[in-house]
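Propose amino acids for all 56 sites.
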């Protein structure tokens, strides 16, 4: 009974990790898109693209 519970626990843990990694990939893609949009808006904005749209 204990080995069966350990296998089920391991499967649940791996499923949770896989789901979390997939969510992190989507978050990374969203941040990249926002960064690219800010870069394009800065270049096309008034002032000839000399201003910074972020505070780094």
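Proposal:
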């Amino acid at each position: 009974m204990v080995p069966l519970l350990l296998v089920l626990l391991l499967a649940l843990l791996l499923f949770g990790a896989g789901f979390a990694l997939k969510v992190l990939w989507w978050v990374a893609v969203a941040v990249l898109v926002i960064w690219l949009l800010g870069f394009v808006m800065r270049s096309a904005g008034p002032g000839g693209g000399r201003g910074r749209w972020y505070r780094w």
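The CA atoms of residues 26 and 40 lie 21 Å apart. Residues 1-45 form one domain.
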